[in-house]
Structure formats: structure tokens, C-alpha cells
Amino acid sequence: MIDRLIFLSVPGLRQRDLRDPKLAPHLHELWCRGGGVELTPSFPCVTSPVQANMLTGVGPREHGVIANGFYHRERGQVDFWVGRHDVICRPTFFTRLARERPELTSAVWHAQNIKGADATSIVTPSPIHEPDGRTLPWCYSKPEGLYAAMAADLGHFPLQHYWGPLAGIESTRWILDGAWWLARRHAPHFQYVYIPHLDYAGQKYGPDSPEALRAVGEFDVALGEFMRRYAELPGAERMAWVLAGEYAMTAVNGAVFPNRVLRRAGLLKVKVEGGCEYLDVAGSAAFAMVDHQVAHVFVRPGGGAMPEGGQDARPPKVRGGQDACPPVVDLVAELFRDEPGVAEVVVGPERAALGMDNPRSGDMILISRPDKWFAYYWWEDDAVAPPFARTVDIHAKPGYDPVELFVKLPERTIPLDASLVKGSHGAPVVEPGQRTVLLTTHPELLEGLPSPMRDTDVYGLLCGAFGLRS
Predict the structure, then answer these.
(1) Over the Cα atoms of the chain, what is R_g?
(2) Do 202 and 319 fall within a single domain?
(3) For residue 314, is pLDDT > 60?
């Protein structure tokens, strides 16, 4: 019987990386001596939806996390990395645990969309943006003052090593040190720890590059030390470990630019300010919110303003979906069906087959080929790109921008060369290599679960571990 569980969410973890005991001895031992199954991420295979899948047991159709960002139709605004837990429209495992087993404590470290969750303890990045442009390191924490106490002992969370050109093992070590810091003082019964370390080298150099394999080795060393520390705690024999890969990457050799396609067709408009081109959402008949290998295309209904009523507002139903203006939707669909690098164009009611028929989704969804990804750029000449395009500014862009990993130092500017990116993810799993893996020290936790598992099955595993009915 277990009374504590440590759950590590590790994007980019692949079964093939566990086979070599020299590369990853601790992961290899978990696979061989503990329990391990293949894990299939649900579409879209990107962080925020996959984490919501694991924490709710349902997919984006039900929980509403359709990407790492959202388009607010009533405001004409895209928000990426919002961080709030209330964007998840289903109760999560933290809520179930707090309501049904209130004697048990929980902690979560650096997960997405976690601010305000029902966990006992939370720490997640929330840097302070000063008026003069400086970014000061800070973290949101629950209870208030938790992060300040941690930082007094561990130093501030090294945000510069969490994302951008300096991303690396330093942030992983701090996250694990922080989880251990809390474990010694409060011994939470459930700890959720997000470790994005394998993401960086995989996107920057490719998932099979020497740099990506080196990152696996770095993570394995950090994991081994982390587990060794916990083995020294009282009651360690009743402690279970679970590691779940969020998704696996594919090698890419170029990007697709859906907003440029829409602009050339006269459907996307820009505003010129200070000699720079900015996306004019209100004036555009269509635009794309991109996220790795997925793009949500939003079409303005009837040529008028976007519908009122909030983020979940449904435009007038046409053709059984959210499509607001059939001629424009059909035109956009045909544009992308002929676009090299686009594997699928999923329109209106067709989104149901992907589990993406949610009001927050675009009127159509584009899926890239596994060897491509979607970039948000709408300008044709880099000289007129908006200033934020050359900076690490994850909240200003209408899409995820992995080129931020390539900031030139000391100039601190992004080269605006989408061909630099060598790894991506997000497309539906169609090949075994796109699956990831789930590992545990306690194989009995897998009883009654399918093999391979889906990410939504993780919720049942967590509920079963603590005697909750899934």
C-alpha cells in the first residue's frame, strides 16, 4: 500500500531513450524493474491540453483547453500561457483529492494553467514585468509567502534557464530542489512536478541530435539524485513514483506560415504603426492562432465583427459547426488544402473526429506534416516585423514561437529564421515513434488500465492510487 506519490510530467520522454543503460541508467532501471507502458498523447499533443487531459480524464472537447493559448472572440485578443486554473472547464484531480480526501495534502510545481488550483501548495513562474522593460524573477505561490521562503534558501528561480537561448539543466535542478525542499518540511501526499528539460534541445537541435541525447543524460542524473533523496525519508517504502511523457517530438525541416497565406489571399489585414506591421484582427476576414504543429483558423462571421458573449461564445451555426460565413470558410479551406506542408484541413463538424468540437476551437484546424511546424509570421519583409517579434515575449505573439530559443547574445535579438527549429510536436499520433512512455515503481498501479495507455487514462491511475473512483 502506498501513502505518497510523486508524479513527474516530462515532455519529450521516449521509449527509445530508455533502452541504453549507459545513456539513462535510472530511467532504464525503472523501465526494466518497475512498470512501464507506452503512452499515447491525445490531439493536440502540446503541453497545456495534455496536462489537462491527465488531470481530468477527458479531452479538449470537455475541458476546453484546445491549445497553449486561447482566442477571446469578444475582445479580438489572443492570450498564450494564461496560467490560470479556471480555464480548465472540468474538475481536476487536485479538486477531487481536496474534496474527497481532505486529510491528504498535495503540491504542484511549474505545471501549466495551475494558478488557483485546489492543491495545498503551488509554485509556478510568474515574473514581474517592470515599466522600464526589465523582467524580475518571481513565482506565484500558494500559500502566499511560500516562494519567498523557498527563494531565501534556494535563490530565485532561474527564469533565464527555463526558456530562451539559455534554457537548460539549471532550471530543472531548481525545480527538483524546490520539490525536495517542500517534501522535507511538509511531506505532501501527492506531488506533481513538471520538468520541460527535454523540450529545449529537441526543438533546437532535433529529437535525435547529440544535444538532445545529452539532455536525456542530464535529466537522468538529476532524476537519480532526486529519487535518492526521497529514499532517505521516513516511510519511503510506501512511496510510489510515476513518470509520464507528455508527447514525443518529430524532426522538422521548415515551417508553414498560415497567416502569410491568408494575407496573400486578401483575408488577413495588417496595421502599420511606426513603420512596423501589426496584425489587424478586427479588420481581417480570417487569421490563424498557431501552436507547434497545430493551427486554429478563426473566420469572421458574415464579414462583420467577431461575436460577442465571451471566450466560449458560439458564432452562428453553419454546416453543423462554428463556421460563420460558408463562402469564406470554403475559400480558406481550399487555400490550405493546396499548401505544401499542411497534412490536414479539418473544418466545422469534422473537428468532432479529433475531439476538438469545442466553442473555443477555431472554425477550422490545420495540422502540419510531421516534418513541418506552423509559424505565426504575417509579414513578408523582416524589416517591418513588429518589435516584439525579435524578443522573448511569449504573451504578445498570436502563437507559440520556438525561434525564441535562438536569441542572439549579447544583442538579445531573435533572428526571425523559422528554419532554425529542428524539432516539433502536436500532430495526431499515427506512428509508434510519436508515442511517449509512462514509468512507475509500482506496477500494480497499472492494473486494469489499457496498454498502450492514453494520456486521459493517467487520471484513473492517480484516482486509483488514492482510492478515488475515477
Answers:
(1) 22
(2) no
(3) no
If one counts the domains in the chain, the total is: 2
What pLDDT, on a 0 to 100 scale, did the predictor assign at position 311? 34
In this structure, the answer to whether residues 98 and 246 fall within a common structural domain is: yes
Residues in the chain: 470
d(CA 389, CA 40): 34
Same-domain status, 241 and 349: no
Express each pLDDT in 378-406 by its tens digit. 999 999 999 999 988 888 899 999 999 99
Does the residue 470 lie in any domain?
A: no
Q: Are 278 and 396 in contact (CB under 8 A)?
A: no
Q: How many alpha carbons fall within 13 Å on the CB side of residue 223?
A: 30
Same domain (yes/no): 240, 299 = no
Q: List the grid coordinates of 465.
A: 492510487
For residues 98-105, give the mean pLDDT: 96
Q: How far apart are CA 10 and CA 329, in angstroms?
A: 37
pLDDT > 70: percent of the chain: 93
Give the domain extent around 461.
4-250+429-465
What per-residue confidence (pLDDT) applies to 470? 66
Angle at 336 between CA 333 and CA 337, to 5 degrees: 80
Residue 57: is its pLDDT beyond 50? yes
Instruction: Report the DSSP pairing between strands 121-125 and 106-109.
Output: parallel
300 with 394, same domain: the answer is yes
**The three cell numbers locating residue 164:** 530562451
Residue 321 and residue 374 in one domain: yes
Q: Which residues, in sequence order, are CB contacts of 101 under 8 Å at separation 6+?
A: 466, 467, 468
pLDDT of residue 133: 56
Domain co-membership, 38 together with 177: yes
Question: What number is the average pLDDT over the span 294-312?
Answer: 61
Do residues 107 and 193 share a domain?
Answer: yes
d(C-alpha 165, C-alpha 261), whole Å = 29
DSSP 189: S
The count of other CB atoms within 10 Å of the CB of residue 327 is 8
The set of cell numbers assigned to 22 is 549507459
